[in-house]
Design goal:
CATH class of chain A: Alpha Beta
CATH topology of chain A: Nuclear Transport Factor 2, Chain: A
Structural class of chain B: mainly alpha
Distance between the termini of chain A: 80 Å
Number of strands of chain A: 5
Radius of gyration of chain A: 23 Å
Oligomer: heterodimer
Radius of gyration of chain B: 21 Å
Mean pLDDT of chain B: 80
Order of helices and strands of chain B: HHHHHHHHHHEEHHHHH
CATH architecture of chain A: Roll
Largest interface: A-B, 27 and 28 residues
Shape of chain A: globular
Number of domains of chain A: 1
Distance between the termini of chain B: 46 Å
Largest sheet of chain B: 2 strands, antiparallel
Largest sheet of chain A: 5 strands, antiparallel
Chain lengths: ~220, ~290
């Protein structure tokens, strides 16, 4: 650049390099994740589920606790809850929102723990991962011979701290989040949008499931 | 059911405006066809009972749209596209009652008395028997490659696979696909119109219900069986198909029932997504025979 006189160019180059190094060093510890990271994330998740939840030797309490830990760490529950409540989320108080997240989480934990109890050696084979505008889509197949493998798609995004989190599971084209949103939306519409009624219904359902699982 | 649909198409009572698909009007098509049907088959006695039924259904069957000053609710109502919800819920409850008291117990018994490989064989045979009809659907969709695969599968599985009990065709690089008349209509551009629950057959919509009706009359296998005085075989096939499919979905439906707060809405959403996924597969799938 003609602006800088020749005797200032070397220091300028040095300053530029220093600046570049400083930027690199101060970059957030969580780098941008890649499709391969997304694939490993799901593979890891499946492996952990098999060893810490599907294990037949576990007590019911351990199984439930292990699943809850895995679930909360790997799924973006606040995000999913907000999606599932749809247009009713913004009308809910923060307390109602937290109540909903808690009961919604427990419903998934109770249901999935019960299903893992019937584990018969199924395994998840991750086939591919693609980047999309919100994060990643990981394609996998649930192998449960002799039936045909079940196509399962995982929607993942990077949370605020850079960790990968699941936001939806799509089985044979059916999204769990969309189905639950329709379900709860119909229920809320039927009783004038009262979030408390929904949270109470979830609480009752959770109690019923706890009783059924324990009995 | 179709008479009710026909009358509803003519009446402005249900506020939902039925959308016209791009290119041509399925509503006009349905209306014309049903008009013709009614003109040729209606006697005064039948007419009176149809009017009575129609009045009953019109009064009871239509959903009340939310007030216009709540745009979010109105948008949700439109998106849900279920103007016959009260009637649908009644039929859905009836189907569920039938399922709890007859179909699911029968499916559980079927599972208890048959070993896994027998159930698999029966499922293969049932899928094979549907091949002639699926072949027609493939051709109607303009998918000659897929039709060729379906035809090859039928020939191979019926001979080498011993009446379809085994599925050697898949190992030869000819995997099975699903196809039906309703799918063909969807690919032509006919929308679902609205949600409809059929007695016994469950979640559907006018387009798919008409497809189902046409299939039952057009099925090449039915012609063969009726011509050869094998009508009982048609009924046996119908029952075994129902049993086999219900057995495959025992855990899935139990799961939906257990975790859903409104089973009807959950099933409506589930069915629609699944159906859309099937139609997308037909639209974009790669149907060239795979390398074995």
């Amino acid at each position: 650049m003609k602006i800088f006189p020749p005797h200032l160019r070397l220091p300028r180059a040095f300053a530029a390099v220093t600046l570049a190094v400083a930027v690199l060093l101060s970059a957030p510890a969580s780098a941008q994740k890649s499709s391969d990271d997304a694939k490993s994330f799901i593979q890891d998740l499946a492996q952990q589920a098999i060893t810490t939840v599907a294990n037949r030797n576990l007590s019911d309490k351990d199984r439930t606790d292990n699943f809850r830990r895995l679930f909360v760490a790997s799924f973006d529950l606040p995000q999913i809850s907000q999606f599932v409540l749809g247009r009713y989320w913004k009308n809910a108080t923060p307390e109602q929102q937290q109540d909903f997240i808690k009961q919604f989480q427990e419903l998934q934990v109770l249901n999935w723990t019960q299903r893992f109890k019937d584990y018969k050696g199924e395994n998840l084979a991750v086939t591919s991962a693609t980047k999309d505008e919100r994060g990643f889509t990981v394609d996998s197949q649930l192998n449960h011979p002799p039936a045909q493998p079940l196509p399962v798609q995982w929607k993942i995004h990077q949370g605020d701290d850079g960790k990968l989190l699941v936001t939806d599971i799509v089985v044979e084209g059916v999204s769990m989040a969309i189905t639950q949103r329709s379900d709860y939306g119909a229920m809320l519409q039927g009783n004038g949008g009262k979030i408390d009624a929904l949270v109470n219904a979830l609480r009752t359902r959770n109690d019923q499931m706890r009783a059924a699982n324990g009995g | 059911m179709f008479i009710c649909v026909g009358i509803l198409l003519h009446s402005p009572h249900c506020n939902k405006m039925l959308p016209d698909a791009a290119g041509f009007s399925p509503r006009a098509m349905l209306a014309k066809g049903l008009n013709r049907f009614l003109m040729t088959h209606l006697t005064p006695g039948k007419f009176a009972s149809v009017i009575g039924l129609a009045v009953l259904l019109l009064l009871a069957g239509c959903a009340t749209p939310p007030p216009a000053d709540d745009p979010d609710a109105v948008a949700e109502f439109e998106q849900m596209n279920d103007p016959l919800e009260p009637m649908n819920r009644t039929i859905f409850d009836f189907n569920d009652w039938l399922d709890r008291n007859a179909l699911k117990p029968a499916a559980l018994a079927y599972r208890a008395v048959t070993p896994e490989f027998v159930r698999e064989g029966i499922a293969n045979a049932i899928a094979n028997l549907k091949s002639p009809m699926m072949f027609l659907s493939d051709l109607l969709q303009g998918n000659v490659t897929r039709g060729g695969v379906t035809l090859s599968r039928f020939v191979i599985n019926s001979t080498v696979g011993v009446a379809g009990l085994w599925d050697p065709a898949t190992k030869m690089g000819l995997p099975g696909h699903y196809s039906d008349m309703g799918e063909a209509f969807a690919l032509w551009g006919v929308d679902e119109q609205f949600y409809l629950v059929l007695p016994l057959f469950g979640p559907s919509n006018p387009r798919d219900a008409i497809g189902l009706g046409i299939e039952s009359t057009l099925d090449p296998l039915s012609y063969y069986m009726n011509d050869n005085h094998l009508r009982w075989a048609s009924w046996a096939r119908f029952l075994v198909t129902g049993l086999s499919q219900r057995e495959a979905y025992i855990e899935t439906l139990d799961d939906v029932k257990r975790t859903s707060l409104d089973y009807y809405s959950a099933m409506r959403s589930l069915y629609r997504q699944r159906r859309e996924s099937q139609i997308q597969d037909a639209r974009t799938g790669d149907w060239a025979p795979a390398q074995p």
